[in-house]
Amino acid sequence: MERRELLRWLAATAGLASLEALAPEDLLALGREVHAGAASGSVLSPAETRVLRLAAERILPASDTPGATDAGVVEFIDRMLANWFAPAERERFLTGLPELDQRSRDRSGRDFADAPDAEQVAILTALDEELSALRQAGRGGAANQHWFGMLKYLTVYGYFTSEVAARKTLGSYPLPGRFDGCAPYQVPIAAPTRP
Known about the structure:
- The protein is mainly alpha-helical.
- The chain has one domain (3-170).
- Helices cover 62% and strands 0% of the residues.
- The chain contains eleven helices and no strands.
- 31% of the residues are buried.
């Protein structure tokens, strides 16, 4: 998938009103800014951070390329929750996150973070299948608003806007700067010449 195609997909499936209006180049710029720490804040507890780190790493695991942890995805998501999500969106995400523990306890009596990798993957796969069923039933908006849809979106968005993923996965960092062809032109004033 090409970078621009990925960013268009992210913008189309975000479900986040503040991000939907951004052009792909601006969406990329915002992601890079969030990774740089320009936006600050923290809303995740240590327990939520632990669960989220494991879930993101299962979604985008390290292999011959960096994984979600290497790309700082959890810190990215935390900053997005603190600074870019509307309160209702943030609440929906944070209220849904404990579902990972509940599903894991229902399966094996253990919290998600204490479950074996294969069980974590099975739980995430089941959630992903539920989102796919919503989309196939013509309820794509509901899938995009689902907390797990938000988690997948932010994991992919955070990963592909990170420097480590751009360098080692996409092989294209630094990205060229923005060109604004409509900028007003100013004629430089010539310095006075001496006789």
